[in-house]
């Protein structure tokens, strides 16, 4: 009888140990930094359609606005908060605005439950390596997190363009996938 109780006690302890151990839920930072090879832009669209310098309109920013080297940038979000951009196979030619070597962009961070009007959003403050300011530098941009998990980083970025040909406010949906 003692043997039966001992076996049942051991089984109960083992079952309790396995059922009480919940895996830690991943945070946004966990998802961003787990991709040690980084993230690569896969799609980018604009709403409303973006006005190009030749007065044409484009929805697909990825194929109709960004240069090949901008579409291939690899973005690394490091655990220490730093953000790095690496060029892909196509390197930015000399004289063009872009990155032709691994470059530290600055620091990224996340703010959760940010109230904007009557809604709340989770924001990823990151450097978008294809959005340059007037001096040719890259600014920290607030991007609304739409989806972030092991396989996708999708953010909305609001761009206020003051260029006379494209003057207006555009919402860009940017989709990143893990780099290979």
Question: What does the model show?
Answer:
With 180 residues, the protein is of the alpha+beta class. The chain is built from four helices and ten strands, in the order ααββααββββββββ. It has helices at 2-20, 28-34, 61-64, 68-71; strands spanning 39-51, 57-60, 74-77, 82-86, 103-107, 109-116, 119-132, 138-148, 153-161, 168-178. Strand 3 (74-77) and strand 4 form a beta hairpin. The termini are far apart. The model has no long low-confidence stretch (mean pLDDT 87).
* Mean pLDDT over the residues: 87
The total of helices stands at 4
Q: Which regions contain 5 or more consecutive residues with pLDDT less than 50?
A: none
Spell out the helices and strands N to C: HHEEHHEEEEEEEE
Helix percent band: 10-25%
Query: Radius of gyration from the CA trace?
Result: 22 Å
State which percent range the strand residues make up: over 45%
- Structure class: alpha+beta
> What does the main sheet amount to?
10 strands, antiparallel
Ends: how far apart? 59 Å
What best-fitting shape do the alpha-carbon axes yield? globular
The total strand number stands at 10
